[in-house]
Amino acid sequence: MADVFDIYTIIFLALAVFIFLRLRSVLGQRTGRERPPYDPYSARDAVRSPAAEKKVVTLPQRGSDASSRPAETAPPSAERWKDVAESGSSVAAGLDAIAGADSSFDAKHFITGARTAYEMIVTAFAGGDRRQFRSLLSREVYDGFDAAITERERRSETAETRFVSIDGSTITAAELRNRTTAQITVRFVSKLISATRDRSGTVIDGNAEKVTDVTDVWTFARDVSSRDPNWKVIATETGQ
């Protein structure tokens, strides 16, 4: 009986050693250099392809100190106002002053907006649509436009204006007044078809079929210390 017991004991021991060796060969040994268990919420385990890396946009940190960022170097006037103002001119100096007070100022963008405003105001004035240009004019200029429309309405006259083209829009003056008020004067050269009719429809001024060359000089102003980005027309005159 003892022999039987010894035989079974030896068999069980042999099986235990065999199983241990199999597990060791499959699972390996811990050496202290094992990678930690995978954490799906950890950014360190994220895999990024080279293409994905190129699409990553680094956002500025909220509350970051602006003084820690390198200051942007403004380009020389000759480059900044290229095709807008002659280098060394009073216009370039005025634009420099405005840009110094308002870092977002862009002269070419201003000219584009001024052309749009010019066409819209002239067309609205001819149609007597005060609401279209009220917010684009200073109080004094608006009062003058309003008075002209009122007088035209009193005589039962109507005006019509059609833009054929705006051939030129040149900044002729620029300055910063009292460190807060930017003023820019623009000379517009355009082709218009313009006519005024009486109550019977007869043309009494202008020509409803002829294209006329027109030159206007308008001055725009804006308070650079204000959050309002809009410019207003503060003066108008007929140019030569």
Helix content: 25-40%
Strand tally? 5
Q: What does the radius of gyration come to? A: 39 Å
CATH topology of the domain at 87-238: Nuclear Transport Factor 2, Chain: A
Question: What distinguishing features does this structure have?
Answer:
7 helices, 240 residues, extended, 5 strands, alpha+beta
Structure description:
The chain has about 240 residues and is of the alpha+beta class. It has a domain at about 85-240: Nuclear Transport Factor 2, Chain: A (Roll). The protein is about 35% helix and about 25% strand. It has 7 helices and 5 strands, in the order αααααααβββββ. It has helices at about 1-25, 50-55, 75-80, 90-100, 105-125, 130-135, 140-155; strands at about 160-175, 180-195, 205, 210-225, 230-240. Strands 1, 2, 3, 4 and 5 form a 5-stranded antiparallel β-sheet that branches. A hairpin with a 3-residue loop joins strand 1 (about 160-175) and strand 2 (about 180-195). It starts with a helix and ends with a strand. Residues about 20-70 have low confidence and may be disordered.
Short description:
Helices cover 37% and strands 25% of the residues. It has 240 residues and is an alpha+beta fold.
Task: Give the helix/strand layout.
Blueprint: H1 2-27, H2 50-54, H3 77-80, H4 90-101, H5 107-127, H6 130-133, H7 139-154, E1 158-177, E2 181-197, E3 203-206, E4 212-223, E5 232-238
Antiparallel strand pairs: 1-2, 2-3, 2-4, 4-5
